[in-house]
Task: structure prediction
Amino acid sequence: MKTNRLKKATRIILFLCGLSLIAVLYVPMWSIELNAPQYPEGLSLAIYANRLGGNVDIINGLNHYIGMKTLHEKDFVEFSVLPYFILFFAAAFVLTALIGKRKLLYILFMLFVSFGVLAMVDFWRWEYNYGHDLNPEAAIKVPGMSYQPPLIGYKQLLNFGAYSMPDIGGWIFVLVGVLLLLLLIIELRSVKKMKLSADTVKLMVPIISLLFLSSCKTEPKPINMGKDSCDFCKMTISDNRFGAEIVTKKGKAYKFDDTHCLLSFLHSKMIEQKEIADVYFIDFSNEHAFVKADQAFILHSELFRSPMNGNIAAFANEDSMKKLMQQYSGKSITWRELNQ
Result:
């Protein structure tokens, strides 16, 4: 029956999704980055569908000292089966597009979601075992310490900052999943005779692409006073008024308790300029608000007595800065002047 047939635009999108999944076989699916003072250039672990990439040997050498298992591709059964799962779904998307039966779309959606959930559970299980199953004879032992990397996001592990996020292949999977969900909703509405114009369906890809890109926006992370440590001096951040952050293009946030630490970090080349998305200051007059460094009104005064004697306060508007200048004699400067 015609009512059981998928829309032409739906079939085209399914076909393109199937082709895009083939690309996942050739690009990293997940990335774990490690940063520490002794490795200013950072270490990376790239996880492909069938192998490991990046600084595997160096990471294995570090793992030996703290009792973690070394990484070897032959120890991961996932590398043997994952490429076949990817090819299966690539073929399933293409066949669903060619056959054009709505029932196949429902089955494909359930299988794809189930696979995604199981894959993330398996990844978390691997990270848990990797970070908790430690050699009791290790050279470095910290009582109660485990080294489980974060599933997604950032986590401090001793003096290493670990950052875990999907890589190109992982984002392809996410985008395909979102498209599949929207196609399912559109087709279900069609069954219920809730008309949706073909033009709307055709516009779905650029709209979802825009949403996908917006989800990757880099934003500053809240500074937890008394808990977070400065990424340069390692002191606990105790006064939010002088806090600052560097946010990378991948969304990782480096937090600082003082402008002095921020500038020292930048000038130490511990991070490349091309990796930086934005630099932020805490608004001195609003400890919970951030202001971009190049948009901030900055006041330098020796009377501030900030944690590391940077003695810099930033403001979101000029009136707030001028009001404080009546209490603290100082000099107004720009971010460019400060960062010279």
